[in-house]
From TrEMBL, chain A:
Source organism (scientific name): Paracoccus limosus
Transmembrane segments: 42-61, 82-110, 116-133
Domain of life, per lineage: Bacteria
Organismal lineage: Bacteria, Pseudomonadati, Pseudomonadota, Alphaproteobacteria, Rhodobacterales
InterPro entries cross-referenced by the UniProt entry: DUF6691
Protein name: YeeE/YedE family protein
Keywords for this protein: Membrane, Transmembrane, Transmembrane helix
Automatic annotation (TrEMBL), chain B:
Transmembrane stretches, start-end: 15-38, 50-71, 77-99, 120-141
InterPro entries: Sulf_transp_TsuA/YedE (IPR007272)
GO cellular component: plasma membrane
Statement: the UniProt record of this protein carries the keyword Transmembrane: yes
Protein name: YeeE/YedE family protein
Keywords linked to the UniProt accession: Cell inner membrane, Cell membrane, Membrane, Transmembrane, Transmembrane helix, Transport
Source organism (scientific name): Paracoccus limosus
Cellular localisation: Cell inner membrane
UniProt KW Ribonucleoprotein keyword: no
Domain of life: Bacteria
Entry membrane topology: Multi-pass membrane protein
Family recorded in the similarity comment: Belongs to the TsuA/YedE (TC 9.B.102) family.
C-alpha cells in the first residue's frame, strides 16, 4: 500500500507534467520568451497546481498526522540567505538554457528520448558536484 | 519553434500536479519536490525511505507511457537547444537546486502553497533568472 500509493502519486504527477506541457522544453522556453513567440501556458500550470495545493494543504496539515506515516516532515529552515538566492538564480539560468527543470525532465525520461536522458544525467552530476563542494567547504 | 497556447490542458495538468502534492502530504507527510526526492535517491539511506522515493520516481517515469496507452499518442516533446545546452543547463540546474533547496515542484508548488517565505523568494529568483536567460540566449546572443 505504501509503495503502491507512492507509485500512483508519481504517475499522477507525471501525467500532470505531460498534459500541462511542462515536459516540453520548447513550450517552457517559449513561456520565458516574452520578447519572442510568447506562450503563456505555463502560468496556468502554476495556477492550476496552486488552486488545488493551497486549499488541499490547508485541509491536510490541519490533521494530526499523515495516513501512512508517523508524522509530517516539513522543512524547518526559515532563513533567506545567499545560498537560497544564488542557488535559485543558478537553477533559473540552467532552466533557461536547457528548457528542462527536474520535475519536467523525470517524466520526460519515460519517453526514452536521448535529450531527456542527457539532461537527467547532467542534473544528477550537478547534484553530486554540489554535494562534494559542500563536503569540501 | 512555436508552440500553441493550451489553457485547458495546462490548467488541468497543473491541477493534477497539485493533487499529487496534496496526496503525498496526506498519505506520507512529505513535500513533493523532485529535487529532494532525487537527491535522497542518490544517497544511501534507510531502505524504506529509499524505496518510497524510487516508487515515486518510477511512477513519474511511467506517466508518458500511460498517456500513450490512454491517449494513443506520446506527449509532445520538442528540444530546441543543442546538446551542449542540455548538459551545461543540466549541471547548472543540479548545482542550483541543491544549494537553493528545491525547484519548481518543491518551492514553486509545495512551498508556495504553504506560503513559505523561503519558497516565494526562491520562486521569484529562478523565474526572473530564467526570463533573463532566455532573453539573452534568444535576443542578444542568438539574434
Amino acid at each position: 500500500m505504501r509503495l503502491f500509493s507512492a507509485l500512483l502519486i508519481g504517475l499522477i504527477f507525471g501525467s500532470g507534467i505531460a498534459l500541462s506541457g511542462m515536459i516540453n522544453p520548447a513550450k517552457v522556453l517559449n513561456f520565458f520568451d516574452l520578447a519572442g513567440d510568447w506562450d503563456p501556458s505555463l502560468a496556468l500550470v502554476m495556477a492550476g497546481a496552486l488552486a488545488v495545493a493551497v486549499p488541499g494543504y490547508r485541509l491536510v496539515l490541519a490533521r494530526q498526522r499523515p495516513a501512512l506515516a508517523p508524522a509530517f516532515q516539513l522543512p524547518d529552515t526559515r532563513r533567506i540567505d545567499l545560498k537560497l538566492v544564488a542557488g535559485s538564480i543558478t537553477f533559473g539560468i540552467g532552466w533557461g538554457i536547457a528548457g528542462f527543470c527536474p520535475g519536467g525532465a523525470l517524466p520526460a525520461l519515460g519517453t526514452l528520448r536521448s535529450e531527456a536522458l542527457l539532461f537527467v544525467a547532467a542534473l544528477g552530476g550537478g547534484l553530486l558536484i554540489a554535494r562534494a563542494l559542500r563536503r569540501a567547504g | 519553434m512555436s508552440t500553441s497556447f493550451t489553457p485547458f490542458a495546462s490548467f488541468g495538468g497543473g491541477m493534477l500536479i497539485g493533487l499529487a502534492a496534496v496526496l503525498l502530504m496526506a498519505l506520507h507527510g512529505r513535500i513533493l519536490g523532485v529535487t529532494g526526492i532525487l537527491s535522497g535517491l542518490l544517497r544511501r539511506g534507510d531502505p524504506r525511505d529509499w524505496s518510497l522515493r524510487a516508487a515515486l520516481l518510477l511512477g513519474m517515469v511511467l506517466a508518458p507511457a500511460g498517456i500513450r496507452l490512454i491517449w494513443g499518442d506520446w506527449p509532445s516533446l520538442q528540444v530546441p537547444v543543442p546538446t551542449a545546452s542540455l548538459i551545461g543547463g543540466g549541471l547548472l540546474v543540479g548545482i542550483g537546486v541543491s544549494y537553493g533547496g528545491g525547484c519548481t515542484s518543491g518551492h514553486g508548488v509545495c512551498g508556495n502553497a504553504r506560503l513559505s517565505r523561503r519558497s516565494i523568494t526562491a520562486t521569484l529568483c529562478f523565474m526572473a533568472a530564467a526570463f533573463a536567460t532566455v532573453y539573452v540566449t534568444r535576443h542578444l546572443i542568438g539574434a
